[in-house]
Amino acid sequence: MSNQVAAMSRRTRGPWAVAFAKLARNRAAMASLAVFLLIVLACFSAPLYANWAGTDPFASTLDAVIQIDGADVAVMEQSTEGLGLGYTPIGPTWRLGNYFLGADSQGRDVMARMLYGGLSSLLISGAATIFTLILGTAAGLVAGYFGGITDTVLSRFLDVLWAFPIYLLAISLAIVTISQGISIGPIEIESGSLWLPVIIIGIVYVPYVARPIRGQVLSLRHSEFVLAAINLGVPGWRILWRDILPNITTTLIVFIPLMMALNMLTESALSFLSIGVQPPAASWGTIIQDGQALLYTRPLVALAPGLAIAISVMTLNVFGDGLRDALDPRSKVRLGRD
Amino acid sequence: MIYAILRRFGQMLFVMFGISVIVFLIFFATPGADPAARIAGRNASPEVLEAVRHSFGFDRPLYVQYVTMMEKIFVTGDLTSFVNRGWKVVPAVMDSIPVTLSLVFGAAILWVVVSIVIGIVAAATRDSWLDRLLMALGLLGISMPVYWLGEVMNLITQSRYHDSWAFSWVPPLGYKNFSDDPKGWFLTLVIPWITLAILYIGIYGRVLRAAIIESLQEDYIRTARAKGLSETRILLRHALRTSLIAFVTLFGLDFGALVGGSALLTEVVFGLHGIGKLTYDALQNLDLPMIMATVMYASMFVVVANAVVDFVYILLDPRLRTS
Q: Closest partner residue to B151 among A175, A179, A295, by Cβ?
């Protein structure tokens, strides 16, 4: 049986196989995917790294002393400038597991924080992507398929949300939820929770998904196979699930990496504005903010996470472009930001 | 044409109303905590809480509260901060508007000019190493966080290479009024302009290149070639002009978004006291009335800016007048 299937697929390859082969031939996209997966892997090994290095990236360790080439070195050096009252964290030691990228203003290992920060940045943008896709698809499906007053209300609401500048909307949502959290019925989210940025970022990008999906559903709704199904008396939810959803899957897949890239930038910006990930937890955005005060003395604290964001976002964008070219070359999914 | 403009105008009013309602609901009706406690800020005394409740009308129906809020922000302008006791919020916002506009307009000019040049060069040298390099750089520009780029710029121009001949002219961070010191105004804004423009140059260069290449397939280009026009003339007079339509549409969308997004982050990094910095400071000490005002004014500006672009567009493109 399985031989038969294999033989058949060798003769006429399905659209997925064709798309996959096209993607696999795109060297830039595959290289980007590899780099991104490497970053993901590194970030997910954050607890292992911290454990191996024997450092706690969330506790302030101002009086820590480390060993470099057998000599004891204090993590916080007495400042030599001015009155010599301040302390400067040590710079990069370039020794893995031993303050590789130096320390931040609280004497914490920047390398370990980078990995943990990347972990939360990735988790938040990933979860927010899923959240946006689910909400956006649901809204687009309902508005496009049922039409009428439902469509009018939903579409107008999405228009307003679309016209609302992303960061201003996110700032408003963040500032009211940040100090006291939020409770909707049985769901209660505490103020420091990582779910807050997930929900906020998830909400603000809903129109970016819902509007194109609605357009597609609207044209599918009037296509012959859907009209036939309607006239056969197939219930609406079944048509949505069996006939319409499979036809928008490629669009949704194309959205994933581009959305993820956008979310990473948004998450880091919110964290930089101190309304995203809350201390002591780290994200690449919060580390850049921590590093701002040390910019001229220990620039690497701010430079390293920014570089990590830029590389992750760039690889996601290149891979996303490749994915779009392979799956849905005519699509108008725009690579961009606000 | 009058109809098309009126229609767009009505749409603008609807969106403004919609946004104001959303802002109102976010600040006053988010479940989870007492809105008075949020607005009064950390460690507010019971008297202050009572005053907040009374002045915002929290004991009255929601629509009364909405009207009260709108009145405080747009009509009487007597919204006051509770963190900085008695600080009138609306005048502070007004004072910061010229700073933000200076930043945004300068950056917009820079990004439009440079990205048109890049788009043309990349399209003309399609698939060459130059094209690839420009497009890769454009992608890098899109992928960098703008505030981080700003910090890198500061590191180079304010610290590491400040004493070299290249950056010794860069003044310390901050903003100078155009009316007091035009030269200082220009010099302090050059680096922020470049920083802000870099991300948009990336997007626009790419978009324009794609549009030019697409329009080079058109029949009228073949006609132009058949007439014996030079390649330069075809590119600049025939292909570029149609490609600019996509460019203008995008510009309308992004110019507005810039005010409420990247400009905010840029101001924070360069210490420019515009609306963004005002919002940032308010975020640091949970000053909700200030954020309410900045969010409201900035998003209204964005909506109006988008509508203005569309009006211009209707005037320029005859096809839009009838639809």
A: A295
B 120-159 near A (Cβ less than 8 A) = 139-140, 142-149, 151-152, 154-155, 158-159
* Counted domains in chain B: 2
Residues of chain B contacting A324 with CB distance shorter than 8 Å: none
pLDDT tens, residue by residue, A134-154 = 999 999 999 988 888 988 999
- Cβ-based neighbours of A305, under 8 Å, separated by 6 or more: A114, A117, A118, A268, A284, A285, A287, A288, A291, B148
Which stretch of DSSP H or E encloses residue B50? helix B46-56
Count of Cβ atoms closer than 10 Å to residue A185 Cβ? 6
Statement to judge: residues B102 and B36 lie in one domain: no
Distance CA A187, CA A111 (A): 35
* B83 within a domain of the structure (yes/no): no
Report CB contact under 8 Å: B31, A295: no
Last residue of a domain, one of B45, B76, B107: B76
Instruction: Report how many Cβ contacts below 8 Å link chain A to chain B.
Output: 163
**Domain assignment present for B185:** yes
Q: Check if the beta carbon of residue B123 is closer than 8 Å to that of residue B209.
A: yes
Residue B89 within any structural domain of the chain: no
Q: List A residues 222-281 in contact with B (Cβ-Cβ < 8 A).
A: 261, 265, 268-269, 272-275
Find the range with the poorest average confidence among A11-15, A152-156, B15-19, B205-209: A11-15
Mean pLDDT, chain A, as a whole number? Answer: 83
Average pLDDT of A102-112?
80
Distance CA A125, CA B318 (A): 43
**Lookup: tokens for A12:** 């006429």
Instruction: Name which of A189, A158, A164, A187 is nearest A176 in CA terms.
Output: A189
Domain that holds residue B138: 96-320
Residue A73: predicted pLDDT: 72
Q: Calculate what percentage of chain A has a pLDDT beyond 70.
A: 88
pLDDT tens sequence across B211-227: 888 888 888 888 888 88
For residues B102 and B51, state if they share a domain. Answer: no
Could you read off the pLDDT of A46-79 as tens digits, one per residue?
888 888 877 777 777 777 777 776 677 777 776 6
One domain for residues B35 and B165: no
Is residue B84 domain-resident?
Answer: no
Same domain for B65 and B207?
no
Q: Could you tell me if B63 and B135 lie in one domain?
A: no
In this predicted structure, the answer to whether residue A23 has a pLDDT above a threshold of 90 is: no
pLDDT at position A166 over 70: yes
Has residue A2 got a pLDDT over 90?
no
Chain B segment 262-281 residues within 8 A of A by beta carbon are 262, 264-265, 268, 279-280
- Kindly state the tokens that stand for B85: 């006791």
Say if residue B3 is exposed, middle or buried (CB neighbours under 10 Å; 0-12, 13-18, 19+). exposed
Decide if pLDDT at A131 tops 60.
Answer: yes
Q: How confident is the model at residue A85 (pLDDT cuts 50, 70, 90)?
A: low
Euclidean distance between CA atoms A35 and A38, whole angstroms: 5
- Interchain contact, A165 vs B299, CB within 8 Å: yes
Cis peptide before A280 (omega within 30 of 0): yes
Does A43 touch chain B if contact means CB atoms closer than 8 Å?
A: no
